[in-house]
Structures are given as structure tokens and as C-alpha cells.
Design brief:
Blueprint lengths: L1 H7 L10 H8 L6 H34 L7 H46 L2 H6 L2 H43 L1 H48 L1 H6 L3 H53 L5 H13 L1 H29 L8 H12 L18 E9 L5 E10 L4 E5 L6 H8 L7 E6 L2 E2 L5 H6 L1 E4 L10 H6 L7 H11 L2 H6 L17 H14 L4 E5 L7 H15 L3 E5 L11 E6 L2 E6 L1 H7 L2 H12 L5 H4 L10
Parallel strand pairs: 3-8, 3-9, 6-7, 7-8
Antiparallel strand pairs: 1-2, 1-4, 4-5, 9-10
The structure holds adenosine-5'-triphosphate and magnesium ion (MG).
The site of adenosine-5'-triphosphate (ATP) has 11 residues, from helix 13.
């Protein structure tokens, strides 16, 4: 999937050169301007040394032809040694500075990109795949840092070299210089046309390769599913189509390269041949020295490299502009959910003044009491309305359970409560104050959330739980782990809490992952606890044990519990049945059962499914068991 979206990204910027964009990008080199100047300077000295060498050869040859008996070689040897030393030292220096610059710029762009990715709201991630974001911080970043370091160096080196050669040739023999320069436009044209095609074709190869890698990856990770559905042959056929495509575009790329190099060599040889013929006749007629002819021929061959490099960067510039648009767009993207200017000003003022007891940094009370959804409307990315005019008032310390059909909007409700998203209409009030008036960081740090699909980081179980509160001691972590699952967590794991969780908790069972995530939330000791299907994958026995531990956690703490397994919500203060974004029923377990509506229907369906195990339990609270 990610690769499809990655492919959708434009390869080449739509308009011509966007100077504003490049100016912004150029600003990333500001901390390293000294190095940039040095880099350009060394590029120029390399070019100057390259222009000087044929001149030295010319003089030596001319003197050798004119008066071989009086020739003193050592000044030439000295000059040659000096030019060589300048050349070698300059190359060494520009490799050093260029390498540093490229790495430093890439580092800065990645750091700024990552920093902003962390700030972005969840809605931004709904719009983009992980693969897309990764590509921005890897390949795009690489391209930009390359062009800002090596591209700039080559620009200075190549233009100095071209200018130097042209001047040297024009001074030596203007007519012959014109013969060589006549080939140059053709050389430039061929280079630009081919370089662009070669770059596009290389891009195609990379893109096909990434699709191939993705298919390979899916083939490996999805092998269980493939085996179960006997999809091996079909998979092989699909893979064959992809690898066939890879073969075709690789061959095309090789062909282009194979044509370009000989074509340029031919043009170079043609120019050298012309110089040799016209210059040779000139030398024979005494209009030109032999040294000048040799120097001319050397210059003619030197022409190829700078033109080749310049056309490469010119072609690259177009693609780099598209990369720059995407990367800078990501770095500069303003998070949709952030503190307003007024809140930021209050937070800044509070940071300077003394800490007031019982007052949060945003100036409002530290404790969260009543929470109210007032006429809340919401849709994801401006699509279909998930909630409309939703009203709910939750008292301080109340335990609210949300149940109802799949896709009803329960997770959406708690996502809004956590301010991962904000209401598109109406407001969510915390003690009568719109939660957008509160500091975002402070507010979210008061919430403990166990997500429906928990994420674990690679590291030990202990480290994953400690993520909830980094300064917690081992005993506190153990206590939270016991509260969240006790024996189940300790007993089943090979190395107890030191067991490695693996990438995204891959080495743990799904139920164990949920317990770790629950322990993490409990460790944070939040004011509001939100559990979205927190124990859906643990067995009924473990769940009952957890429930007993949680009763202590829940006591006096405002909690939102979402569960499909209704046995877990029976003791809630209030159960809300949510269907299509609306509360269709509300009350305690006993009240709702007695009412005989949707909740009762759900419980009877479930007790049927659970083959009567819970049917007897339903009656435990005093209400009659649903008929099954
Ligand atoms: N990130 C999203 N982007 C677009 N639509 C979404 C997104 N998340 C959820 N939805 C849509 O919002 C609706 C409500 O989803 P939500 O996850 O809140 O349901 P739920 O009640 O939690 O369901 P479940 O019991 O299956 O977890 C669904 O129709 C779903 O397709
Ligand atoms: Mg959900």
C-alpha cells in the first residue's frame, strides 16, 4: 500500500524553477556558510590547476622545439609539482568539506522533519502512509543534501573550468577555438537530453524495485494467509509480472547508458579530430606552435567532464525541486491541533512566574472534574459525519462504559476526548472550559490511554511499561504490571519483565501486548483513564482477575471503558449504547437489562455465543438473565 502512495508523489515539480523554494532550501546551509565558501573555492582551484597543466605542457614543448640545447627542465618540474600539489590538496579538501556539508545538511533536514512529524496531528497521518513519510526523510533528504553540497561544488568547478578553457583557447588561437566551440552546443544538447532520460529511467528502476521489494515483503509476512488460501501460484504469477517489469526497465536503463557514453566519446573524438586536422595544417604552415596544438587537444578532451556534470545536475534539479517541495512542506506543515496563541502566551507567562499549587501551567485548575461533550459534530477529513450534535456529561470520578456495534463511533469519541482530533462542531468542555483553552501537552499528560491496537516499542517489557512514567522505580513498574495482569504477565514470559517485546511487541501474544499497554497506562496514574477494548484478547479468567485489580484503579477516577465483551462493563456507573454516532440507550447494567432494548439484545446475543457461560452471570447483578 505504502508504495502505491509513494508512487503517487510527483517526480518532477510542476512549474519551472521555484526560486522561493530554493532560497528557503539554501537557508539550510546558513550554519555552514564558511564551509560552502571553502568548497566553492576549492572547486575553483581544482579547475584552475586543470587549466594550467596544458599551458605548462605547451610552454615546455614550445621551448623544446625552439631551443632544445638551452632548455632548463627544473622550473617546469617545479611548476608541475606545485600544480599537482594544489590539485591534490584541493581535491582532498573539497571531498572533506563536501562530505561534511552533505552529512550535516541531511542531518539538519531529517532532524527538523522528524521534529515536525512528532508535532503533527493524527489527521495528517490519516492522509499519508508510513512509506510516504519515510521516503521524505530518506531518499528526498538524500537528494537535497547531495545537490546542496556536490551540486554547488560541481557548479563552481565546472563553470570555472569551462570559462578557463574557453579563455585559454581563444587567447591561443581564436579560429581553432571556434572550431572546438562549435561542437560544444551539440555536446550540451546530447548530454542534457540523455541525462534527463537516464535519470527518469533510473527512477523507474528504483520505483519498480521498491514495488518488487514490497511484493517480496508481503509474500514473506503474509505467507500464512497465502498458504491457507492456497495463493502461492497466483502470488508467483503476480511476482513474475513485477520482476518482468523490472527486467524491462533495467534493460532500458542500461541501453540508454550504453548509447550515451559512446555518443559523447564520438563527439569528443570528432572535436579532437577537427583540432588535429585544422591545427596540424596550421602548425605545418607555421601559424601555430606544436605546444599550442597539444594544449588545444588536451583542452578539447577536458570539455566533456564539466558539461557532463552540469547536465547531470540540471536534470537532477527538476527532481530535487519536487523533493524540496515535499520535504519543506513536511517541515513547515503547521499541526492542525496545537495550542492557540492565547494559550501559548499564558503558558509562557506561567513558565516565568512561580508555580502555584493546584494550578496547571495554563492557569486553570490542576484537577479535572466534569467533562462535557456539547453538541459535538465530527467527520474525518471533511468526509461523512461520524458524530452530529453529540451531547454527554460525565461527572468527576464516574466510570462510563461505551458499547455498541462495530463502527458506531466509540473509538472516535475517545479520540476526540484525547484531543487527537478536535470536534468540527460544538465543543468538549473540561469543568465548563473548552478544552482548546487548555494547554495541549498538559491536558494529554493527564490522560491514560489503552488503545484498541496498542503499540509496543522494541525493548524489554519493563521498558515498555516504564514508558508510562519514565521516573518510575522497578517496584512501581512491577506493581503496575501485577495490577494489569499479575501472574499472566510474570508467569507466561520466559524472562519475566526483562523479556524482549520484539518489534511492535511481535514476540508477545496479542493479549500480553494489551496487558503491557494497560500496565503502562496504570503506571502513569492518570486523572482520566481510557480503555478501548483494552482486554479484548485476554482469556475470560485473566480478564476477571484484571477486573478485580482495576476496580481499585477505577475507584474515584473518571474512566471511559469501551468493550465488546459486555461482561467487563457490568459494574460501570453508566453504560452508553452507541450506534451510528448516537447514544441510543443509557443507564446501569440492571436498568438497561430491565428496559429490554438494544443492550439486552446485545447481551443475549453474546451469552448465546459464549454458550451460556455468562448467561448465569448476567443474573448476578439482580436483573433477570436474558432468555437464550
Ligand atoms: N482515521 C479514520 N479516517 C476515516 N474514517 C475513520 C477513521 N477512523 C474511523 N473512521 C470511521 O469512523 C467510523 C467510526 O469508527 P470508530 O473507530 O469510532 O468505531 P468503533 O465504534 O470504535 O468501532 P469498533 O467497535 O469496531 O472499534 C467508522 O465508520 C470508520 O470507518
Ligand atoms: Mg473502536
Amino acid at each position: 500500500m505504502s508504495d502505491e502512495r509513494l508512487d503517487d508523489a510527483p517526480e518532477v515539480a510542476s512549474d519551472g524553477l521555484d526560486l522561493d523554494l530554493w532560497r528557503k532550501l539554501w537557508a539550510t546551509t546558513r550554519p555552514y556558510r564558511g564551509r560552502v565558501v571553502l568548497l566553492c573555492l576549492f572547486g575553483c582551484t581544482v579547475a584552475a590547476a586543470e587549466v594550467a597543466l596544458p599551458q605548462l605542457t605547451r610552454r615546455l614543448l614550445d621551448e623544446l622545439v625552439e631551443s632544445p640545447s638551452t632548455l632548463v627542465l627544473w622550473p617546469y618540474a617545479g611548476a608541475y609539482a606545485l600544480i599537482s600539489v594544489v590539485l591534490v590538496a584541493s581535491v582532498l579538501s573539497f571531498i572533506h568539506h563536501g562530505g561534511f556539508l552533505r552529512t550535516a545538511i541531511a542531518h539538519d533536514i531529517r532532524r527538523d522533519g522528524f521534529a515536525n512529524v512528532q508535532r503533527l496531528s493524527l489527521a495528517s497521518f490519516d492522509r499519508r502512509s508510513v512509506g510516504w513519510l519515510m521516503a521524505r526523510l530518506t531518499s528526498d533528504c538524500e537528494r537535497l543534501s547531495n545537490i546542496l553540497a556536490w551540486g554547488v561544488l560541481d557548479l563552481f568547478w565546472a563553470s570555472t573550468l569551462l570559462a578557463g578553457i574557453t579563455i585559454a583557447m581563444l587567447t591561443m588561437n581564436p579560429l581553432l577555438a571556434c572550431v572546438v566551440l562549435a561542437v560544444v552546443p551539440v555536446l550540451i544538447w546530447v548530454s542534457i537530453v540523455f541525462k534527463r532520460r537516464i535519470l527518469h529511467s533510473a527512477r523507474e528502476v528504483r520505483r519498480t524495485n521498491s514495488r518488487l521489494t514490497a511484493a517480496y515483503n508481503e509474500g514473506i509476512t503474509g505467507q500464512r494467509t497465502s498458504k491457507v488460501f492456497a495463493r502461492e501460484q497466483a502470488n508467483l504469477k503476480e511476482f513474475g509480472v513485477l520482476s518482468g517489469g523490472m527486467y524491462a526497465c533495467s534493460v532500458r536503463n542500461q541501453l540508454l547508458n550504453a548509447t550515451y557514453v559512446p555518443l559523447v566519446l564520438t563527439l569528443g573524438s570528432l572535436a579532437t579530430g577537427l583540432v588535429l586536422a585544422a591545427g596540424g595544417m596550421n602548425v605545418a604552415a607555421g601559424g601555430m606552435s606544436l605546444g599550442s596544438l597539444i594544449a588545444f587537444m588536451m583542452y578539447t578532451r577536458f570539455f566533456f567532464d564539466p558539461i557532463n556534470e552540469l547536465s547531470h545536475w540540471l536534470a537532477e534539479l527538476q527532481m530535487a525541486q519536487a523533493s524540496a517541495e515535499r520535504v519543506l512542506g513536511l517541515i513547515e506543515e503547521v499541526p492542525e491541533i496545537a495550542d492557540s496563541d492565547a494559550v501559548r502566551a499564558r503558558l509562557a507567562a506561567a513558565a516565568e512566574g512561580p508555580r502555584r499549587a493546584g494550578v496547571a501551567p495554563d492557569g486553570h485548575p490542576q484537577t479535572i472534574g466534569e467533562i462535557e461533550f456539547r453538541g459535538v459534530g465530527f467527520s474525518y477529513g471533511g468526509g461523512r459525519a461520524i458524530l452530529e450534535g453529540f451531547d454527554l456529561r460525565v461527572r468527576a470520578g464516574e466510570r462510563v462504559a461505551l458499547v455498541g456495534s462495530t463502527g458506531g463511533g466509540k473509538t472516535t469519541l475517545v479520540s476526540l476526548l484525547c484531543r487527537f482530533y478536535e470536534p468540527t462542531a460544538g465543543a468538549i468542555l473540561v469543568d465548563g472550559v473548552d478544552y482548546r483553552e487548555r494547554g495541549l501537552d498538559w491536558y494529554q499528560s493527564q490522560l491514560g490511554i489503552v488503545l484498541q491496537t496498542p503499540h509496543l516499542f522494541s525493548g524489554s517489557v519493563m521498558e515498555n511499561i516504564r514508558y508510562g512514567r519514565l521516573d518510575a522505580g522497578d517496584d512501581e513498574v512491577e506493581h503496575a504490571a501485577r495490577l494489569a495482569g499479575g501472574a499472566a504477565l510474570f508467569g507466561e514470559l520466559e524472562d519475566g519483565l526483562e523479556t524482549q517485546a520484539g518489534e511492535d511487541g511481535g514476540r508477545l501474544s496479542v493479549g500480553q501486548r494489551q496487558l503491557v499497554s494497560l500496565a503502562r497506562a496504570l503506571l502513569a496514574d492518570p486523572q482520566i483513564l481510557i480503555m478501548d477494548e483494552a482486554t479484548s484478547s485476554v482469556d475470560a479468567e485473566t480478564e476477571r482477575r484484571i477486573q478485580r485489580g482495576l476496580e481499585r484503579v477505577w475507584a474515584g477516577r473518571t474512566s471511559f471503558v469501551i468493550a465488546h465483551r459486555l461482561s467487563t462493563v457490568r459494574t460501570a456507573d453508566r453504560i452508553l449504547v452507541i450506534e451510528r454516532g448516537r447514544v441510543v440507550e443509557s443507564g446501569t447494567h440492571a436498568q438497561l437489562l430491565a428496559r429490554g432494548g438494544r443492550y439486552r439484545e446485545l447481551t443475549s446475543q453474546q451469552s448465546l455465543r459464549e454458550s451460556g457461560r455468562d448467561a448465569s452471570d448476567w443474573g448476578a447483578t439482580g436483573a433477570s438473565a436474558p432468555s437464550s
